[in-house]
Amino acid sequence: MNKTVNQKAWFFVIPVFVLVAFNAIIPLMTVVNYAFQETFGNNVFMWEGTRWFKQIMLSERFHASLGRQFLFTFIILFIQIPLGIAIALTMPKEGIGVPICLVLMSMPLLIPWNVVGAMWNIFALPDIGFLGHSLNALGFDYNFTQQIGDAWFTTILMDVWHWTSLVVLLSYAGLRSIQPAYYQAAEIDGASRWAIFTKIELPKMKKVLTIAILLRFMDSFMIYTEPFVLTGGGPGNATAFLSIDLVKMALGQFDLGPAAAMSLIYFFIVLLVCWVFYTLMMRNEEKS
Amino acid sequence: MKKAKWVVPTIYIIFLMLPIYWLLNMSFKTTTEIINTYTLWPQEFTLDNYKKIFTDSTWYTGYLNSIYYVVMNTVISVAAALPAAYAFSRYKFLGDKHLFFWLLTNRMAPPAVFALPFFQFYSSVNLFDTHVAVALSHCLFNIPLAVWILEGFMSSVPKELDETAYVDGYSFWRFFFKIFIPTITAGIGITMFFCFMFSWVELLLAKTLTAVAAKPIAATMTRTASTSGYELGLLAAAGSLTIIPGAIVIYFVRNYIAKGFALGRV
Question: Do A12 and B83 make contact, defined as CB atoms within 8 angstroms?
Fold first, then answer.
């Protein structure tokens, strides 16, 4: 769309700007304040420069939780994106099946995150949970509160349960926007199912898939409530992802300086990855 | 081959429903049954857990608090985002692209980063433990989202609509409310759905900003889980009830969901 230049448009943006700035800038400045200073309460601050940043960047604890975070995010992206596309491809395209699928599949998205954690906790308990009981009955030695592998398995399964539907809904919407003419042309050319998928469907879904990956990256990178309720970060620190570790440091140990420095580094990593995605996405949009 | 197509969605839906079924199953059991036996459905069907929630004010006020601030947040977010999204979709102005990206960065901010500063900030302006505080803090991620979705919908409305209205002598505000908003009702519906959803499911900020008066249901649940030990049936009943508002909202917007996503905005 050709937009007209109009500086008065700023007046329309002011309410949004004020509301978001109120919530974003002032608290962010507090974080910056803590990140560069030492405090003993009562508003007494001492300048510390980059000491907290150096401490965090060199600390093994941060490296460990960052490593766990990246591993977790990559695993769930690897599972959720292909699985979501596969389910979207097999979903009905018309009839009564469409609203049934949409409504049932959206259910997990609208459950409060701590309820998701609590629900999976009850579901996976080795003695009274359906998953835990079944796995043990099948001969697996399964206990997610004590074994690291089981804790990871349960956390990943929970996230797949929780968020794959988002990828499904996005891919489905992308598929629905393909004109029937493309399929007719493919049929005339005698294209195989695989060729239709790689040559028509995948390119057409590129935009929605970028958004799906972006959203899943952001949200899984910030994951806090679900694993906190499910495993509490345990056993030990095995599932203490970045947010869990950060809250532990800030509110549990009250190490405000290092926690603030860690917040900024954390935010910066998310921002950097998202900026790369966003620029790529916008470039694609301009091309098409 | 064609016939077997429904197999994958069916298996997926069964996988989605299993934990939900288990939660419901637990909520209708007595505590003794939960602890002592493993049963696939309640042997002694009981409604006591639900009765407790509906009669004990610490429980049901939790629901009311949650719904109160979620609705407040949805209204604020959409009302503020409407004119802004219009500006982004129709005009070029100084710093528009940067502003848009800055808004989106707030959707990317990990709530854990903001938890402590939010607590201090809202305490210092005397808004701690009020519904307004939670509603305002959720604007952090809901307003950017609302602007993003609405901008997508508005950009798909041709600009000729605006120009024709002005030629016909409509003033801007009359055009905006009488013509423009009715043409994008679907978009507003989708936006409200997402604002509702993200405000309803968020717990970290809602919990940090409240103590008693505005405590959300989700926080009531976590505190019960940690203090009274093994009241799993009660917890399951409370959890099951939190699914209902979401289910109602989905049912109303089911026809818009695919369409909303189709615009490539979430």
Answer: yes
